[in-house]
Amino acid sequence: MDHFFTPNAEMVVQNQRSGKMNQTTINNAYKKEAKERACMLITRWMYEADIPFNVVTYPSFQPMIEAIGQYGVGVKGLTLHEVSVTNLKKELALTKDLMKDHMVE
Fold first, then answer.
1. How many domains does the chain fold into?
2. Distance (Å, rounded) from C-alpha 104 to C-alpha 98?
3. Are residues 63 and 87 located together in one domain of the fold?
4. Which of 22, 39, 46, 89 has its CA 20 to 30 A from that of 29?
5. Quick one: 35 and 8 in the same domain?
6. What end-to-end distance do the CA atoms of the chain give, in Å?
7. Which domain holds residue 103?
8. Which residues fall within 8 angstroms of residue 92, CB to CB, at 6 or more apart?
9. Are 45 and 86 in a shared domain?
10. Model confidence over 76-90: pLDDT tens digits?
11. Are 18 and 48 within one domain?
12. What is the pLDDT of residues 2-19, one digit of tens each?
């Protein structure tokens, strides 16, 4: 049911940046600890994978984090096949679709 009412991750990030979603919650202390743990694990993964630090400034980074948070507990990581085949094909199709208008010109 949450799938139908969960806002789009990109829209959530846009609203957060514009200050439209500043609601204080009761469990801020717990959330702070959970955020610190999540950030440490993400950072450790970046160190292990030798990912440049500036990727956190990419426009796609925060929507990715938001989408993971919206999924909630139990999200499974991507498989090698999903990254290198399934999702790569989807991204390629999206890119080709975006380029259609430019190809006509």
1. 2
2. 12
3. no
4. 46
5. yes
6. 44
7. 77-105
8. none
9. no
10. 999 999 999 999 999
11. yes
12. 555 666 767 767 776 666
Q: Do 51 and 99 fall into the same domain? A: no
**Residues 56, 49 contacting (CB under 8 angstroms):** no
Per-residue b or e along 68-104, where b marks 16 or more CB atoms closer than 10 Å to that residue's CB: eeeeeeeeeeeeeeeeeeeeeeeeeeeeeeeeeeeee
Judgement on whether residues 66 and 90 belong to the same structural domain of the protein? no
Look at the block and give the residue holding tokens 């956190």: 56
Torsion of CA 76, 14, 39, 74, to 10 degrees: -20
Amino acid at 69: G
Spatial CA neighbour of 12 closest among 3, 21, 4? 21
One domain, residues 103 and 54: no
Ramachandran region of residue 33, left (φ > 0), alpha (ψ -120 to 50) or beta? alpha
Helix (H, G, I), strand (E, B) or coil at 78: coil
